[in-house]
């Protein structure tokens, strides 16, 4: 501690009285901002390069085995459509296939086929010929039949109802 006090006295003795100590030079604000920005860019680039290279060298996950879909043919459905006020009766003939995600579901769904056919018949008899116009009408029909089948076979699920043939006469 004594050495520090002597050093302080020596520093003050060298300078004449009345003269202030020279001010320390400060770095300009622009230089500080540019240095921080430069460090951020370099740091960000390094981090990005590390993450990019790290992802390339990671182990690739094994490819998932895609199970082939299973299809179940339904009996043909022939119903008369709801009347539109004209004298002519119109009929709808539909050949449908159910798409199942797994083959193990076939024995679970087969006993429920009478209920599925009943759901088809009751819904299709309510339709008018105008309900089946265009691709939008057929899409709505497909979605509604899929929904009704899934309600009947729950907790099992049918992936889709596919049309083989649709005839309106």
From TrEMBL:
Membrane topology summary: Single-pass membrane protein
Region feature (Disordered): 1-21
Location in the cell: Cell inner membrane; Cell membrane
Composition bias type Basic and acidic residues, residue spans: 1-18
Keywords, alphabetical: Cell inner membrane, Cell membrane, Cell projection, Chemotaxis, Cilium, Flagellar rotation, Flagellum, Membrane, Transmembrane, Transmembrane helix
Single biological process term from Gene Ontology: bacterial-type flagellum-dependent swarming motility
InterPro entries reported in the protein's UniProt record: FliL
Gene Ontology CC terms: bacterial-type flagellum basal body; plasma membrane
Keyword check for Cell inner membrane: yes
Spans traversing the lipid bilayer: 31-52
Primary location: membrane
UniProt-listed NCBIfam families: PRK12785.1 (NF009420)
Role: Controls the rotational direction of flagella during chemotaxis.
UniProt record similarity statement: Belongs to the FliL family.
The protein, known as: Flagellar protein FliL
Native species: Pseudolabrys taiwanensis
């Amino acid at each position: 501690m004594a050495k520090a006090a002597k050093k302080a006295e020596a520093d003050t003795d060298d300078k004449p009285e009345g003269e202030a100590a020279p001010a320390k030079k400060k770095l300009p604000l622009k230089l500080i901002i540019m240095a921080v920005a430069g460090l951020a860019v370099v740091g960000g680039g390094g981090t990005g390069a590390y993450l990019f290279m790290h992802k390339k060298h990671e182990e690739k996950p094994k490819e998932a085995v895609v199970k082939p879909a299973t299809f179940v043919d339904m009996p043909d459905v022939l119903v008369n459509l709801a009347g539109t006020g004209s004298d002519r009766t119109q009929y709808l003939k539909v050949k449908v296939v159910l798409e199942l995600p797994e083959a193990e579901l076939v024995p679970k769904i087969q006993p429920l086929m009478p209920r599925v056919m009943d759901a088809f018949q009751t819904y299709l008899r309510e339709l008018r010929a105008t309900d089946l116009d265009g691709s939008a009408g057929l899409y709505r029909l497909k979605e509604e039949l899929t929904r009704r089948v899934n309600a009947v076979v729950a907790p099992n699920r049918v992936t889709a109802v596919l049309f083989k043939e649709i005839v309106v006469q």
